[in-house]
Amino acid sequence: MASKIFATPVDALRDLLFDGMTIMSGGFGLSGNPESLIPEIRKAGVKGLTIISNNAGADGFGLWMLLESRQIRKMISSYVGENKLFEQQYLSGELELELNPQGTLAERIRAGGAGIPAFFTKTGVGTVVAEGKPIEIFEGEEYVRETWLCADLAIVKAWKADPAGNLMFRKTARNFNPNMATAGKVTVAEVEEIVEAGALDPDCIHTPGIYVDRIVKSTVNEKRIEKLTTRAREAA
């Protein structure tokens, strides 16, 4: 069986990128961002991308890089409030946006990985979120129909992986990353540590290796904090 481990982020993305593709990018804020893979997508120069991600990075970091290079045509997101470049491009009509309630976005991605093309939720009923979508009545309550999300490529950031592609995520980085790993036609995981086969406790594996096609050790692990607030330590 061919190895899933690739030497560099460039190698891990080789022959996977093309203009107009849809990419899922993991992370929650700046936690769990595929910090090593995003810059290589920028360098590849692919255009007209649809990006599915909770947010679009922050000024100067994460998916902001692909906004700055004008490679993103459309964002499917749930939170866009910390990115001034995102705001500018959207308000100017340069960037298309499909805004989702955060739980709905997570469930659409999970549904894509589970092979469930549609589901119903009360979230968004009676708001612009429901415009143009079918509404059904269940037990006297209105529910809006939402559809799955899938991607040509999913890029995720994990804490540990073994050679089979089993992944462990750490703390907040588990948001979105495990679900996205199941919903891409191809999934590339950058990881902080690659361990030997059998080193991961099966009870602690968050994403089974069957969903992961390629693994690469991350070259960037900045783990930036979007807003750091500190106060002077009180005297003892």
TrEMBL record:
Q: What class of enzyme is it?
A: transferase
- A Pfam entry, by short name: CoA_trans
Q: Which Gene3D superfamilies match?
A: Glutaconate Coenzyme A-transferase
One term of GO molecular function: succinyl-CoA:3-oxo-acid CoA-transferase activity
EC numbers listed for it are 2.8.3.5
Q: Give UniProt keywords alphabetically.
A: Transferase
Q: Which InterPro entries does the annotation name? A: 3-oxoacid_CoA-transf_A (IPR012792), CoA_trans_fam_I (IPR004165), NagB/RpiA_transferase-like (IPR037171)
Protein name as catalogued: 3-oxoacid CoA-transferase subunit A
